[in-house]
Fold this sequence. Notes:
About 65% of the residues lie in helices and about 0% in strands. By secondary structure, the chain is mostly helical.
Amino acid sequence: MPAQRAHVARTSRGQTAHAAHRIVLVTPSHGPPVPSNYVKPLSRLVRDAEHAPLARALGPLNLTTLGIGSIIGTGIFVLTGTAASQHAGPALVLSMIIAAVGCVFAGLCYAELAAMIPVAGSAYTYAYATTGELFAWIIGWDLILEYALSCSTVAVGWSGYASSFLRDLGLALPAQLTAAPGAPVTFADGHVGVGLVNLPAMVIVLLVAALLTVGIKKSANTNTALVIVKTLVLVLFVAAGAAYVRRENLTPFIPANTGEFGHFGWSGVLRGAGVMFFAYIGFDAVSTAAQESRNPQKDLPIGILASLAICTVLFIAVAIVLIGIVPYTRLNVADPLAVGIDATGLTWLRPLVKIGAVLGLFSTILVQMIGQTRIFYSMSRDGLLPEVFGRVHPRFRTPHVSTILTGTVCALVAGFTPINILSELVSMGTLLAFVLVCIGIVVLRRTNPNADRPFRTPWLPLVPILGALICAAQMVALPWPTWQRLIIWLVIGMGVYLFWSRANAERTRLAS
């Protein structure tokens, strides 16, 4: 084999890529050498985006409501009660603020990368352009915990409110068909048993998958309408419930720790932040729709930051009112907002809250599934996943095979897994992705300082460093079993990468 010359990767402005990211392998003379931790040039990312077959149909309103639709979901409608009753008490407000600050810092980093690299794939794509293929694979594999499991988690929350609403109408489903196997359920005669399968959760996931297969514009317009409904419901809850807030329910503001980490006290506030972080997941879903945005450089930062700001204000208001109405010890239920309404005696508002939750959680499932299928699409186009995940329907111009497969798996997970396990795994996976994105923004500023940046993260490197530290602290606060599941998942992912994805990605690059 003749001696090979190292191929010098160039950025879109012609600078030489940072040498630390280029470990050159010897390859046959008929093809260019391929780095072992390949960093995709920005010029190639832009070229791929320009030639993508996805329909560019989304404007700033659609992108903002995609973010709001994803953020306002199970976190505020269900997990607020769990986090307050089990971890933080009235100090859940502090937990929300900690989670929100971490998200703001991460959101500023996302906004720069999304405007600079307007390609489907979110944090996965950004890692490919900053820290290389290996880290891109880790994030892409990790994001499955965020998006796919988030679909399932929200579907379980949707099932709780839908089942409660049907009971109010006299159309109660068999209790054992509304909960995962082994989960406690209360039967009509009052005795407590266990669930068999969460059938409503499975059905709603499959319906969302069918809608997404038909087209992104129809899905986005449906989401916009549903976002308006559920936002108005939450505003109405705050406005109507504010008069019923009792000061004694908010004291002590930080309940004394029980002697166990994460159960009240300041450790409970931090654990509550890790749990409630799930409520803020969603603004990053905006960036997964980059290749379906009409003007991504301008509209993506708007969608990310606007959705995050609107939801943060609304969440804190809802938490203060809910805990002020009902003692936090009574909120460990599937429908805490409905419990809050019952305590006020405003019975006319109860069905509105449940309808808002049912419609709102539907839109959250929709947005999370958009995110997952677009990440699969990007990873498939890079050769890290099988080609089938990148197929686009000739008429609807959507990744239909990926959507159908994702919907099927998410439906099965939603039907057979308890919500507490799902929500903690989703939070863990997302926090890890945010840490890596914050690091990536610093790396890219050093390796490609002259690239065009329509939006620039302020106060670098302070913002990304604080974002990474706050997110890492919330990861530390999550239970050890959640860490174990994350480690097992990442080990499986590394096996897939080493034994199949790495070689297939190299073949894909050589063939392109």
